[in-house]
Specification:
278 residues; alpha/beta; Rossmann fold; eight-stranded mixed beta sheet; four-stranded mixed beta sheet; 8 helices; 16 strands
Length: 278
């Protein structure tokens, strides 16, 4: 009897574990030029059939029509699937036909621009819920630049909060509390994402992030490069590199607000490399 109970209990736990695992993929691109090979890998990851469509969400940009034109060009070179443009505004957040289309898409693509602009429309709305539901049901959610940053729960906005807050690609000082982090789409809560990383030398920005969230790996994705996330596995694809900071040791903040620590783990990955998220 005890053995039967143990077998049933084990089966239930395995089922619950399987149910809790995300079934979809995240294809997170660091911005810049997307090669034909990278786009082909995106289509392959999404496992599109000829009947599937691509849901494009351009709300991060102030020029959604232009963004839609160019993303259609990118996809036209690698597939014949229809690209549908869903430019939600705050007046459209309950538009049932659009939400159903996002929810049922096998590939959702988040355009670049300003991640805060996108989240000001989508955060805690049926739009976010539809994206999350599609992902949990097996869809691939892809995004570039701003579309990459908003994948995470802890989203880098790029804004500085201290001193001269004029926007810069990287930060001139390593100050605690200088980095603005807001809530993203929460498709991944086990890492922080930064983009255009090597091209724009954003090391100071990501080191500031890891000082704020020392238990999370901070992942910098360069242009023309992507990470493909499935559950806890991360695979690198594309032309350049992915840099990961993690595990700062003996982290302190001086009385002048400067960040310091004894050591930090830094890993650099290229196309085909894989690593695991905790």
């Amino acid at each position: 009897m005890k053995r039967k109970i143990l077998i049933v209990s084990t089966t239930i736990l395995l089922c619950l574990h399987a149910f809790s695992q995300d079934k979809g993929n995240l294809f997170i691109i660091g911005g810049g030029h997307k090669s034909k090979e990278l786009m082909q890998q995106l289509i392959s990851t999404a496992n599109l059939t000829s009947n599937d469509y691509i849901a494009f969400l351009p709300m991060a940009t102030e020029e959604p029509d232009t963004s839609y034109y160019y993303i259609k060009e990118d996809f036209a070179g690698v597939c014949k699937n229809k690209v549908c443009n869903f430019n939600f505004t705050k007046n459209d957040i309950n538009k049932t036909s659009w939400l159903d289309s996002v929810r049922n898409a096998k590939l959702i693509y988040l355009g670049g621009g300003d991640q805060s602009r996108f989240m000001n429309i989508a955060l805690h709305t049926p739009i976010q819920a539809a994206i999350q539901e599609a992902y949990k049901n097996g869809a691939t959610v892809a995004g570039t630049s701003a579309g990459a940053a908003m994948m995470a729960h802890y989203m880098i906005t790029g804004n500085q909060l201290l001193g001269d807050t004029t926007y810069e690609s990287t930060f001139p000082k390593l100050w605690a509390g200088n980095l603005e982090i807001t809530e993203g789409l929460s498709l991944i809560d086990s890492a922080i994402i930064d983009m255009h990383f090597v091209a724009r030398s954003r090391y100071n920005r990501l080191l500031t992030a890891i000082a704020k969230y020392s238990t999370l790996p901070c992942i910098g994705i360069d242009e023309g490069t992507a990470i493909i996330v499935h559950n806890n596995n991360v695979k690198v694809a594309g032309a350049s590199q992915v840099i990961v900071f993690s595990d700062p040791q003996n982290l302190h903040v001086t009385n002048k607000g400067y960040i310091k620590f004894d050591d930090v783990k830094m890993s650099i990955y290229t196309d085909g490399d894989e690593f695991e998220l905790k």
